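User: Hey, quick favor. My workstation is busy. Could you predict this chain's structure for me?
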Amino acid sequence: MELQVPIDDILARDLRLIVPNLHRRYSGVTATNRMVAPKLARMYRAAWLGPHAPDGIARMGFVDLLKLWRRREPLIWHARRNDEMIAGALLRALGWPLRLVFTSAAQRHHKRLTRWLIRQMDAVIATSELSASFLKREATVVMHGVDTARYAPPPDRAAAFADSNLPGRYAIGCFGRVRAQKGTDVLVEAMCRLLPRYPDFTAVIVGAVVPEQQGFANSLKRQIEAAGLQSRIVITGELEIEEVQRWYQRLTIYAFTSRNEGFGLTLIEAMAAGAALVAARAGAAEFVVEDGVTGVLIPPGDADALVAGLEPLMRDPAAASAMGERARARVVEKFSLEAEANAIAAVYRKLG
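Assistant: No problem, here it is.
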């Protein structure tokens, strides 16, 4: 259980931004929120409400929130999920002086409740033009950013891979929960076909197996065992964020295999770490990846296409390294956390 550190009286008096995170389970939404919140806290007096608070921003508990009832100065409440929108709308109706902001990454038609909640917001941010097209109201597009200092290429990628104690010389990675939506089965099928031909490569799946997906994960493990690749297709389970960052630095190629995504933060994390990318056209992939330059775009859910995208890079690791360098440069130029935070702050300023 995380210790809630109450905000002090001075911060409470000057507070301008509340970043709610009302989910116990760590998710991609939480990860994106954790990265940008400390940057926003440098521009606004801000506090994080809920679990998984990052360093660099004050924490507040629900008792602290109660003390802000009927305060005169407005507060920005920046929600990223339905329950956070519901909480913000309810608190405002009960007397909290909130300006409600919602960030939407969904690339689908919203249900009736979500549409109603979105209409209650004072401002809406979409993480891509495609996400914005489903909102049916004015929205500002702000694409996610990544900490390019924390997610960075290693001084020596070969040495970083050697630290993993895995066989071979190069790694292909796919990060995220083990489930069909993430396309883990597509990666496993492609690896069962490719790894026997490329003995210098090992595949690494970094992500948790949640109980409801245990049957799916077990079927993948049986497929791996049948191919005799237990030592070369590794499922790590859930790891601390610092260890995930080290795994990015061990990769030569990153396979983004999701069938659908809101954004797909692992895209820019892997690119920032200098990995070549083979990416399904899901989430923000088409907006982030320059096909044939900083990565290769393929249809989602297509193992044949994944094999075709990966094999030239496995055949020529030097070409993969060069693609990874171009990918890193693109993220530094276009997808920094500073750019994301500045664009969000511009939305806040319009609220007064």
